[in-house]
Specification:
By secondary structure, this protein is an alpha/beta fold. The protein has 3 domains: about 5-85 and about 170-435, TIM Barrel; about 95-160, Oligo-1,6-glucosidase, domain 2 (Alpha-Beta Complex), CATH 3.90.400.10; about 435-485. Helix content is about 35%, strand content about 20%. It has 20 helices and 21 strands. The strands form 6 sheets. It has an 8-stranded parallel barrel with strand order 1-2-5-10-11-12-13-16, surrounded by 4 helices. Helix 2 runs parallel beside helix 3 (about 70-75), helix 10 runs antiparallel to helix 11 and helix 10 (about 255-265) crosses helix 15. The two termini are about 40 Å apart.
Length: about 500
Amino acid sequence: MKNNVQLITYIDRLTGSDTKTLNNILNDQLADLFSGIHLLPFYFPIDGSDAGFDPIDHTQVDSRLGNWNDIKALGEGHELMADLIVNHMSAKSKEFKSVLQHGQKSPYWDLFLTKDKVFPDGLSKSDADKIYRPRPGSCFTNFALPNNESADFWTTFTDNQIDIDITSEKGKEYLIRILKTFSENNIKMIRLDAAGYALKKAGTSCFMLDETFEFIDELSKAANDLGIETLVEIHSYYQTQIEIAQRVDRVYDFALPPLVLHSIFTKDFTALAKWLNVSPKNCITVLDTHDGIGIIDVGPMNGKPGLLSNHEIDNLVETIHLNSAGESQKATGAAASNVDLYQVNCTYYDALGQSDFDYLVARAIQFFAPGTPQVYYAGLLAEKNAMDLLSNSNVGRDINRPYLDITDIEEALKKPFTIAMIELIQLRNNCAAFNGEFSIVSEKSTLKMSWKYEQQNITLMVDLVENNAHIEINEDNSSRTISLNNLLNLS
C-alpha cells in the first residue's frame, strides 16, 4: 500500500450513479488526490438493512453499480480495498433460504451458527451475561424450520444478518470463495468487518478471543497468498488495539477521532500526545467513516483506565450534541435504529460546530499522525448532517451517509475549506519526509508534530489558545511555511 491519502466511499452515494462514473470522477474532479479507494459494500444488494453490510451474495456486484469488469478497471488506476464481511450474511440469501426450507437437511445448514452449536447444554444466565454485545437485546433470533421445528440463530447485529459458523468447512469455503473473487478483480486489500465477533465460545465474552486471533491469522495468510493485504476493523480498549497491531498487517487508529475532538474542545493535547507516542505505526488513520464516531476506543474498560476518563467522555459527547445543535442526539443510541450504541452519529464537520479552521486543524493532525490516512467522502466535502435522510430512514448512521452526485461534488469543491483540504492532501502525498521518523511535542494547548527523512523535514505546529496553525517544510535546500489560517483566508 502506498503511503498516500486514500478515499473511503460508497459508489452510489458519492456519484449518484455507478462504478464507471466513480472512475470518471477520480480522473476528473478528484484527479491525482487518492492513490487508493476503500469501496464500501458494492455487493448485492447495496440497499439492504445495513447499507450493503448484509449481502445476499458477497461475490456479486449489485447490477445498479455495474459488474466485476468495472471494479477491475477501477483497480487499474487505484489500489482498491473492499470489505470482507466475515461475521454474517443476509437472511435473504439463497443459502439461508435453503436452511429455512429444508432445515438440517439443507446443504448449507453447517454454514450458519445456531445457539446450540456453542451452548449444546443450554445457555445459562451466567454465560449470557458474559457475551459482549454491540447492541441491546438478544444476540439470537428464532426462525421457524420444517416439521414445526425452530432454531435460535446467532444474529449479533440485526435479525437480517445471520452469523456464519467460521469454524465449519462450509464457513471456510464461503470466505475463501470471496477472497478468490476479490483477487481476480484487482482488490489489493480487505477490511475484515466485525472480525472481533466472528468466533464464539461458551463461557467467554465471544469477542476477541485467543481463537479469534488464530482465525484472523489464518484468514490473513490465505489473503496474503492471493496477493491481498488485510486490515482488521475492531473497536475496543486502546491497549487491545496495540496488541492486535502486532499480529496483523494493519489496524485502524480508532482512538484518533475522539482524541482530536477532545483536544480541540478542551484546548488540551495531553491525551492525544500520550496516544500518538504509543499508537501502532501499521495503522490506517480516519476521522470519520460510514460508522459513527467511536467512544469505546478511548474509554476505560474493566477497571483499567482509558485515554480519557468517563467524565471526559461524557463532556466529549455532550459537546458534540451541543455543536451539532442537537442533531447528533437524534441519530445516536436509542434515538434511532442503531447497531452500535458505543458510537456518536454525526458528521465530523458538525461535531466541530461547522468551524472550517477547527476542521482543517483536525485534518492536518490526522495527516501528520503515524499511519496511512483515509478520508471519507462526506468528510472530504465538509458535508453537513443529512437530517432529511435520517428522518426518512430512522437509521442513525444515515446522518453521515449522504447521497450526492457530480453537481454536488463540483459545488463542494468551490468551498474555501475543500480548496484548503485538497492542498493538504497534495502536501501529504508529495512530501517525502512522511516516509521517515515521527516525533511529537506537546505543552497542553500547543502541539508540534514532525517528520524527518534524510535531509527533508516537515512540521505541523498548532496553538489552540491563539487559534493559529502552520506547517513548516524544509526540502531541497529550501524552506517554506504554510499557514492554515491563510489557506482559509482567515487572516
